[in-house]
Amino acid sequence: MKPSSFAPGAAIALVAALVGIVSLNQRRLPLHTLVELTGQPRPTPLAPRPSPASTAGGEISTPLASAPPMEREPEVPCVDLSPDCTAWQRGGECGFDPAYMHAHCAKSCGSCARADFDGARASAAATAAAATAAAAAAAAASVAGGGARCRDKAASCPLWAASGECDVNPGYMKLSCAKSCGSCDWADFSRRCRADPNATLAVPAGAIGELFRAIDAGALSRYKPRVVSRPPQPWAVVFDEFISAEHADEIVSVASSEEGRLFTPSQGTGGLDDDGQLIPTLSSYRTSSTRWCDGGCLNESAVRELRERVADATGVPDANHEYPQLLRYTQSQYYKEHSDYIPAHRDMPCGPRVYTFFVYMSDVEEGGNTSFPQLGLSVEPKKGRAVLWPSVLDAAPRDIDERTMHIANPVLSGIKYSVNFWIHQHDFKANHAIGCTG
């Protein structure tokens, strides 16, 4: 769901490796989607590796060894300006983004002989060298008082900081590039992400029951609701016509578009690292594919309308919602029994997940039901249908209700598209922006 706490280069390398071992019917993995997957800023190029080239006055000159002076233009060195160039080239970036790649990754793209990119390569190399020097000076001045935890997690941090990424993407940069951003105080999760014990709950005790009783009494009738579980069991409701088939098709189109075409293996969580970030894991427990809808996707008209509808139906503002999680299940894919509640969220500023609002975006030929074993409930996928259930107890809405553990059963035929909305007690998006949601 969330942008990863991986360093961008490491995450991109990981995804590049996954291309060779995971079959997802995907096209190539271009740089902008790899960056979108990790949630990190587009890496700024590193300075070129040592070469005969030298810089003077912003221009690149290459002295000729064992040769007399010649009347010709100086040769532009053929280098990669980022350690990630090879991974990007393997992902098809040389063709997808030639202006950037042929200037910054000439060696990997095999474009050293292309004179039309000489000027761009020279400019990129000079900019990288200048940024390296400036960032190194800034980093040296920022470490004082940071202690052993004040460090950069990526080799490219000084250059990203020099290019302004500390302000553009503070949630990642000030934590993972603390040394370069001069944000060493962020390294201590307990200081950075201290929850307010007096913060007002979006869903106080008793509010879950109030919402579902109102729905049962006829509220939201335009969405054709059916209460399928009620006390003494947890509440659950199915909306048979939450969105139109056309609206669902628009969402799938957004998820599959050039802007958001990248579905990646869905991840679980493996606890917290020493910076308070959830550790993403891949396992056989969950085999679906995911695409997080943030950035431009979040403001697509079809997505924006759906976000507003979910906020209106639940009475919880959009700020408390995680970024929509677009899911794709192909034949035989599944998610075994689990709860959407993440214990680590309980004491974070965002608070725990209170509700799951799950919307089906496609019909499925066979299989793919969402089942709740402890409730004896199974919901069949249907385009435009939605299911709403709580992950917490009505009387104690910060504590897990294990009875709503559920299963995404294997798709036997066809493809299942859906969207998850996970809704928290407190503002998720603002806390996510400063690295306080795990």
TrEMBL record:
InterPro entries: Oxoglu/Fe-dep_dioxygenase_dom, P4HA-like, Pro_4_hyd_alph, Pro_4_hyd_alph_FE2OG_OXY, ShKT_dom. Keywords: Dioxygenase, Iron, Membrane, Metal-binding, Oxidoreductase, Transmembrane, Transmembrane helix. It is a single-pass membrane protein. Residues 40-73 are annotated as: Disordered. It is found in: Endomembrane system; Membrane. Residues 42-51 have a biased composition (Pro residues). It comes from the Eukaryota. Its cofactor is L-ascorbate. Gene3D superfamilies: 1.10.10.1940, q2cbj1_9rhob like domain (2.60.120.620). Residues 78-112, 150-184 form the ShKT domain. Pfam families: 2OG-FeII_Oxy_3, ShK. Its main location: membrane. One of its GO terms (molecular function) is iron ion binding. The chain crosses the membrane at residues 6-24. This is Procollagen-proline 4-dioxygenase. It comes from Diacronema lutheri (Unicellular marine alga). The lineage of its organism: Eukaryota, Haptista, Haptophyta, Pavlovophyceae, Pavlovales.
